[in-house]
Amino acid sequence: AGTLQGSRFSEDFDVNLYATVNFGDLILGKTIGEGQYGVVSRGSYFDTTVAIKQLLDVEGETYEQTLKYIK
Question: Alpha-carbon distance 64 to 28, whole Å?
Fold first, then answer.
């Protein structure tokens, strides 16, 4: 498991720990980037500025293959 140092996670942060976020708690803002696998928007989560990545459906890709982009 990782530790939080300032506003960044240390390198040993365990990316296998997932948090569930209720989409209704997010306020989606302006798109700040996009690529083949998703769109990244600026937004807020309980008054905290966050980057929100929405994964796109990629034809022919399995659920397991898609999970690698969450990490």
Answer: 26
| Longest pairwise C-alpha distance within the chain | 40
What is the per-residue pLDDT for 2?
A: 39
Strands of the 48-55 sheet, one edge to the other:
26-34, 38-45, 48-55
Beta bridge partners of 32: none
Mean pLDDT computed over every residue of the chain: 75
Model confidence, pTM: 0.60
Output the DSSP codes for 30-69: EEEEE-SSEEEEEEEETTEEEEEEEEPP-TT--HHHHHTT
Judged by phi (left if over 0) then psi (alpha if -120 to 50, else beta), residue 24 lies in alpha
